[in-house]
Amino acid sequence: MLPCLLVVSGSAFSQDLFVDSGDTLWVEPGGILTVEGSITSNGTIYLNADATGYAQLLQVNNVGNIGQLDMEMYLTDMTTGWRQLGIPFTNQVQNLNTDGISFITSANDGGVAGRRNMYYWDATDAGAGEAIGWTEAAPTTTGSRSYTVFGDQNGVHDFTQTIRIGGTPSNGNQAFAVKNTYDIGQTGNANAQGWNFIPNPYPSNVSVDKLFALGSFPTYEAIHVWDNVNGQYEALTSSGVTVYNTNATASGASHIQPFQGFWIKVDADGTFTLDNTVREPDSTATAFMSSRPYDLLNLSVTNTNDSTYDRMVVFFGPDATIGMDNGYDAYKIKSTRDVPTMYMEYQGLELSINHLPVAGYSIPVTVKTQQAQTLHTFSLDDNQLDPAWKVELEDLAGGKRIDLRKQDMTVKVDMNDNDKRFVLHLNQQGVALNAEQTLPEIVGWVNAEGQIGIRKIGMDNGTLKLYGLGGKCFATKRMESDQTVLSPRLASGVYLLQFTDDNLKSSSTKILVP
C-alpha cells in the first residue's frame, strides 16, 4: 500500500502498480517509472514536466491499464498557432482530464463552430482516391491518436507553458489503419499520396531507430514532424540525415517524445502497429536526430522581413541513385503557414532531402511565398561539404548566378513567381578518377540552357542513346569524354538515357524535361 504521497526522483521500478483512492504518486521531471505488469489507479499518478525535462512511464509487458494518469508537457515557446499532438491515452476526448489547453469540440464550442480547435487527419478515401482530410474531433473521438490543436491567448483558446492531460495510459500493441489516398485536391500527385498522421501513443519516448526497424514500417523510411515555431515540417530519415528548422543544436538523440504526432507515407492500405519494443525512455532526448557525416550541403532561404525560413539538403554517397533512395531521400511536405517554402524538383519528385551519386547537377529549386515582392536571402551551410565542390545558385528571372560558397544571394520573391525559378548548380572539381570509377553510373540532368547534360562515372567509352517512353530513339551519340551534352528539341515529359560502353557494361537513367 502506497503512503498518502510518494515522490519519485530518478528511476523507480514496480512489478505491478496499484495506487489506492486518495493516494498520490508524484514523479519528478526527468524521472522514469518502469512497471513490468499492469497499472491500476484509484488515486492519482502525476508525471511532471518543466524546463529541465519530463517524467516518463515505461511498461514492459502488453497488459491493460485501469484508472487515471496525469502527464505534463512543457512548451519551450508560447507561439500562437497549431500544434500537432499525439495523445497517449485510450479515453474519449470528453473523458480526458485537461489543464492548460482547451480542446473545443461541438459539445463545448458555445454554439460558435469557428471556435473548434481540435482536428484529426482522416486518410479514408472520400471518393476519387482522395483523403477526407482534417476532421473535427467529436467528444466521443478516442484519445490515442494525433490531433492538430490551435492555441491563442484570445480568451477562448488560451494555453499555458505547462500543459497537463490525464487519462488511462496506452500500452502494448497499438495498431493504426493507414491509407494510400491522396491529399485533398491532389489526385495524381504521387508526392501527396499515402500520408498518415500517427501519434507517439505512449507516455514515454519512442526510439526512432526501433520505429524504422518495425516490420510494419512503410518502404518510405522517413518521419515528418511539424515545427510550429517556424511553421515548417522537419524530415527525419532512417540514415540519420535530417532537415530540421529548429535554432537549437541537434543533441544526437534519436527519439520521439511523448505528446508528439508525426507523419509517415505508405504505398498501400494496411496497418501500422507499434509495440512496447520501440519504447526507450531517455530524459535528455529531443524529437530530432542528428545529421551523420556525409558530403552534405544545407541550403536555407530566409524572408528578410520577418526572419521566417526554410531549408533543404543535398548530399552525396557511394550507394546513392538518381531516383528515390528510401532512408535517404525525403519528400517535401509544404507549409500551411505564411512562411517561405523551398524544395527541389528532381526526377519528378518534390524533395527536401536529395541523396545523389557524385556527379555534376543542375537542380530546379522552387520557392513559394504568400507575399508580394519580398526580399529573401539564400545562404549555404557547407561545413560538411568537401572544398572541391562548387555551389552556384542561378535566378532565371533576375539573371543572377552567385557562388554561394563565397556570398549569399538576396532577391525579391513574389507569390506569383513561376515554379523552378531557381537552379542549384553543383560541380565537383579535382575528383580522382579512381574515386569516380567506384560508381558505374550514367547521370543526366537538364541544365539552365535547356540542354541535357550527361556524365558517365566509372565507365569506358561507348554509345549514348536517348529514348522516349514509347521506345522511339531521339538521339545517338558516341561518348569518349566523361561529360557531354545533348540538344534535342523535346516536348515536356520523361525520357530514358541509356549508355553502353565498349566492354558492354550498361547503365540507364530517367530524365524529366520540364
Oligomer: single chain
Number of strands: 45
Low-confidence stretches: 247-253, 285-291, 430-439
Gap between N and C termini: 72 Å
- Shape summary: elongated
Number of helices: 2
Main sheet summary: 11 strands, mixed
Radius of gyration: 26 Å
- Average pLDDT metric: 87
Instruction: Report the helical percentage.
Output: under 10%
Number of structural domains: 3
Helix/strand structural class: mainly beta
Question: What is the beta-strand fraction?
Answer: over 45%
Organism: Owenweeksia hongkongensis (strain DSM 17368 / CIP 108786 / JCM 12287 / NRRL B-23963 / UST20020801)
Protein name: Secretion system C-terminal sorting domain-containing protein
Offer a quick outline of the entry.
It comes from Owenweeksia hongkongensis (strain DSM 17368 / CIP 108786 / JCM 12287 / NRRL B-23963 / UST20020801). The chain is an all-beta fold and 514 residues long.
